[in-house]
Amino acid sequence: MSARPIEPQPVEPRSFFETTPIFRRRAARDAFCRNAFLWGVGNSFVNSTFVIYFLKALVPNASDSAALGTAIAWTVAAPRLIGALRLLTPWAIGVIGGRKRLCVGAATFSPLILLALPLGAPLFERLATTATSLNLAFFLVGAIWALHHLVEYVATAALWSWMGDALSPASRLRFFARRERRLLLGKLVGLALVGVFTYLESSQTFALELLSSNAWRIALPSLGVVFLTASAVPLFRAPEICVENARKTSFTAMLRQIAAPLRSRPFLSLVLFGCSIQAILGLTQAPQYYFRATTLQLSLFTSLTATAIVNFGQWSAASRAARFVARRGVPTACFLALGVASLGFLLYAATPANAWALIFVASIFWIAWVVVNIALNNEITKRSEPCERSSFVAFYFTATTLSFGVSTMLGGRLFDRFRDVVWSIPGLDLELDYCRLIFILGAALLASSPTFLFCRREPPNTRAPND
After folding, report:
1. Is 211 exposed, middle or buried (0-12, 13-18, 19+ CB in 10 A)?
2. C-alpha 49: how far from its chain's center?
3. Cα 200 vs. chain centroid, distance in angstroms?
4. Can you tell me the distance from the alpha carbon of 87 to that of 455, in angstroms, rounded to the nearest whole number?
5. CA 10 to chain centre
6. Which of 300, 432, 288, 296 minimizes the C-alpha distance to 351?
């Protein structure tokens, strides 16, 4: 009798930190942090430019439009809605031939799309001057914005998968705190440079004459494009990690890979938590833009200063936030942090007209978001399967951005329907318009949103030897 041949058992791929020397692991982490810094600088230029076109050129000219809330919601939500296509990230990795190629290519190509914003700025402003063409202006700006984000979203899912394979469980939380600090530092540098340009543009100085004819509006996003493109250089030098299979797969296999996160209950609980946060933020988008531009009448320089305060506070607190999450655990840390952040919405609800200085107080409360950001970054990589990490990351970001996009569109329609309605609170001699009412509701929902989050009990993070 002959013995039956022993069938080979599938071998799980060993993680990058188990098979790679320590100096290469550190080189990978350094590359990811340098990428975050350069991307943060470029993103500050690009986002600030978008705010310039959006608030300064479009919104003031459109303040009497009956569909203002819907137009604002479309421009903000369009990138999130089209972001559902990032579910195809595993397929894109297979077609392009690896996560490194995808990330480097997207970091090079996506900034070039944004050049359409400064080049088309005169057209957008002309369209915004008439009621009939206003919606077309919002549509064009939103479409350009959405196409840029689609490329970036797919690359982000691949990058998070790539980073997750380069980190040991013990060093993951510390790394995300370090990367968050680099990202925020880059944003601060970018905001400082944009603030200088904005101040010169708003003041009657000789420099204004040199920067006339909208030349500065072309220079700012062009600098942003340069920094965003430069962020591809550290990724190009980072080591490739072949934990996931980068081959082209069949359509059926691709569907199975996309649906893989649905089989993980701990990961789905994280998705529910992220979706609840994004839904709350989406409902308040149109009221926030309108409230800042009309009720508070914030100048662009004031808005940039408030954003800089948030970024500086989060940069200062990132390391402490990581230790706080490790010590308290994710549910408790998020409960406390979102409770503090919700006070910013309550302050909005109590702010009288033209009291623009209170935006700085609200910015202090929003510093608490750094705790949630670091906790979520850590949990996304920790709860995803190593062999299918790109599918898990893509699923999380798709679900949360869709939640934000749909709720933003709904919030815009509600804003158009109720923005002129004032409710009287019986017994309190208090009147609330729609914006203030939605801020109070948003604060209550945001503070209670961590009830969606439940985690498995796991041992606390400890420092890995020689890592």
Report:
1. middle
2. 17
3. 29
4. 25
5. 38
6. 296
| Mean pLDDT rounded to a whole number for the chain | 77
393, two tokens: 């990351």
Each residue's pLDDT tens digit, 363-388 = 899 999 999 999 888 888 887 776 77
Yes or no: domain 20-452 corresponds to CATH 1.10.10.60? no
Q: How far is CA 223 from CA 53, 112, 119, 430, 448, in A?
A: 16, 11, 14, 48, 41
User: Global pTM?
Assistant: 0.76
Positive or negative, the CA dihedral 156, 162, 165, 170 is: negative
Question: Which H or E run contains 223?
Answer: helix 215-230
In this structure, which amino acid lies at residue 53?
Y
Distance CA 293, CA 287 (A): 10
Angstrom distance (rounded) from CA 415 to CA 434:
7
**β-pair type (430-433, 422-425):** antiparallel
Listed by start position, the domains of the chain span: 20-452
What are 275-297's pLDDT values in tens digits? Answer: 889 888 888 887 887 788 777 77
